[in-house]
Amino acid sequence: MTEQTDVVVIGAGLAGLVTARELGNRGHKVVVLEARDRLGGRLWTEDRLGRKLELGGNWLHWTQPHAWAEVTRYGLDVSRGPRSEETYWLAGDEVRRGNLDDFMALIDPGMTRLLEDTMKWLPRPDAPLTNGDLAEADQYNLQEMLDKLDLSVDERNANEAAWVGHFNAPLDQCAYVNALRWTAASSGHWHLMHEASAIYRLKDGNDTLANAIAEDADAEIRLNAPVTRVEHNNDGVTVTYGGGQQLQARKAVITLPVNILHKLDIQPALSEGKLAPSRERTASQGVKAWMRVGRRGTPGPIKPFFAYSAQDKPLSVIRTEFIGENDAVLVGFGADGNRIDVTDKAQVQAAVDVWRDDLEVLEVAGHKWGEDPYAEETWLIQRPGQLTKYHAAQQASEGALHFASGDIANLWAGFFDGAIESGLRAGRTVHAELKA
Ligand SMILES: Cc1cc2nc3c(=O)[nH]c(=O)nc-3n(C[C@H](O)[C@H](O)[C@H](O)COP(=O)(O)OP(=O)(O)OC[C@H]3O[C@@H](n4cnc5c(N)ncnc54)[C@H](O)[C@@H]3O)c2cc1C
What residues does the Amine oxidase domain cover (predicted)? Predict the structure, then answer.
C-alpha cells in the first residue's frame, strides 16, 4: 500500500523548512522530500578557505522582519565583515582610490534620482501590487532607467557596478521594479537598502538557522529524495520520488526555485501564470566568488577594502569579508556566469587584477548556481513585466497544491526573509484548509 501522510513539502530550503515547522508543530503529519544530501537549498554554509563561507545566501538585517524573528527565536549571534578602510573604483580603465564615503558620495546623486519615486510606486512593499499602475514602471529595465539619468562616465560606471553587486545579472535584463522593491522594503532609503542587503551575517554560519528550524520542526525530512512527478486532484496528491517510491498526501507544498518549476512533471499541469515566468526564467544568472588572497612579494596584512569596477567585467564588486594576519578572504560578484568560472583560480586572479595587481589569489571557492539542477539561478531578480504579470498567479494554490519560495514572496523577495515569509504563509493557509 502507498505510504500516507497529511502534507508533503517538496524542498528543504528555508521556505520548505518553515512550512514543515508550521504544519508539523500544529499537529499535521509532514514529510519533507529534499533532492540534495543537505538542508538549506540556496543557503549553503561550508568550511572552505579556512573559514565558514556562505556559498549561497549570506546577509540579513533587522529590517527583514521574518528573518529577524527567527534570529531572535533561536538566539543566533550576528556579526559583520570588517569595515572598509579603502575603496577602489574605475574611471574608464584608470583605478581610483578613496574611502567608502567618497564612493558613496559618487553614487548618491544617481541612486537618489533613480529611486526618488520608490514610495509612489510601492507605497506598501509588503503588498507589492497595491499601486494599480505599477505595470507602467514594470515595463522598464534598470539599464534604461540609469541611462535616462545622463550621468558622467565615472558616476555611471560606479552606479552600474554597485547594482551588479545587488542584482547579479546584466542590468538590461533586470526589471527596474526590483530596485524599487528593495528600496521600498528599506522605507525608501537607498543607504539602508545597501546595508540591509550586504553587511550583517550569522556569526556561526547561516546553516545554524536552517538546522535550528529543522530541529524545531515536528516533521520527517528525507534527504537524497528528488521528486520526479506530482499527480494531484482536489482530494489529494501522489508524489513520486527517489527511485520510484510514492507518497500520498492531502496537500503538497512545492518550494522549487522559479527557474526549475516548469521542469517538474506535474499532472494536471500548472497554470500558465506559473509556467510562463519559469520558462522565461528570472534574470538571476550571475556569480558569487570567494577567494583567499595574500600580498604579492613581501607578505603582510591586507587592509579591509571594497572595490567596484564596471558592469561588463567578470567581477564588478569585491570586498574583504575576513582578515587574517597575512591574508584575507574576499567575496566578489559578477553579472554573468558565462564570463567567469569561479572555481578557476587563474580566472579569478585576472578579475582581481582589474583593480589590484598587488594581490595574489591563493585559493578560490564558489558554486555554479546557474548549472545547479536544483536551483538554476542565484537570488530572485525579475525581468521587466514579470512582477505585475505573474506575482498573484505564482502565489496562488492550485487544488491540493500550495507554493512557497523566497522567489514569490511579497516583501523581501529573493532574500531569506522572503523564503521565511512565504513558508509562514503556506503553513497558515494549508493548516486552515486541513482544519476545514
Ligand atoms: C549566491 C547567492 C547569494 C545570496 N545572497 C543572499 C543574501 O546575502 N541574503 C539573502 O537574504 N538572500 C540571499 N540569497 C537568496 C537566498 O539564499 C534565497 O532567496 C533563499 O535561500 C531561498 O530559499 P527557498 O527555500 O525559497 O529556495 P531554495 O533554498 O532554493 O530551496 C528549494 C529547495 O528545493 C530543493 N529541490 C529542488 N528541486 C527539487 C526536487 N525535484 N525534489 C526535491 N527537492 C527539490 C532544492 O534542492 C532546495 O533545497 C542568495 C542566494 C544565492 C544563490
Answer: 14-429
pLDDT score for 334: 97
Name 55's Cβ contacts closer than 8 Å, sequence gap at least 6. Answer: 44, 45, 46, 48, 288, 290, 365, 366, 367
Among 416, 405, 385, residue whose Cα is nearest residue 276: 385
Instruction: Please answer whether residues 267 and 232 qualify as being in contact, where contact means their C-beta atoms are separated by less than 8 angstroms.
Output: yes
Residue 234 has pLDDT above 90, yes or no: no
Note whether 294 and 362 are within 8 A (CB). Answer: yes
Binding-site positions: 34-35, 227, 333
User: Measured from the CB, is residue 414 less than 6 Å from ligand 1?
Assistant: yes
Question: Can you state the percent helix, strand and coil of the chain, rounding each to 5?
Answer: 35, 25, 40
Tens of pLDDT, residue by residue over 345-373, are 999 999 999 999 999 999 999 999 999 99
Instruction: Report d(CA 168, CA 180) in Å as an integer.
Output: 16
User: 429 falls in which pLDDT band (50, 70, 90)?
Assistant: very high
User: Ligand 1 centre and the CA of 415: distance in Å?
Assistant: 9
Q: Is the CB of 419 under 6 A from ligand 1?
A: yes
Q: Give the nearest ligand 1 atom to 15 CA.
A: 25
- Report whether residue 308 contacts ligand 1, using a CB cutoff of 6 Å: no
Model confidence pLDDT, tens digit, residues 367-417: 999 999 999 999 999 999 999 999 999 999 999 999 999 999 999 999 999
Closest CA to 400 of 5, 3, 113, 121: 5
Domain 103-192 class in CATH? alpha beta
Examine the pLDDT at 93 and tell me if it is beyond 90: no
From CA 370, how far away is CA 381, in angstroms rounded? 13
Using alpha carbons, select from 19, 7, 29 the residue that is nearest to residue 255: 19
Written as one string, the DSSP assignment of 43-56 is --EEEETTEEEESS
Nearest to 405 by CA among 395, 396, 397: 395
- Which distant-in-sequence residues (6+ apart) come within 8 Å of 60 by Cβ? 67, 68, 71, 78, 200, 201, 202, 415, 416, 417
Provide the terminal-to-terminal Cα distance of the chain, rounded to the nearest Å: 27
Q: Is the dihedral of CA 279, 282, 286, 288 positive or negative?
A: negative
Any idea where the domains of the chain sit in the sequence? Answer: 3-43+205-281+380-435, 103-192
Report the DSSP beta bridge partners of residue 402.
253
Indicate the class that CATH gives domain 3-43+205-281+380-435.
alpha beta
pLDDT value at 298 more than 90: no
Q: In this predicted model, what pLDDT tens digit does every residue of 76-86 receive, in sequence order?
A: 999 999 999 99
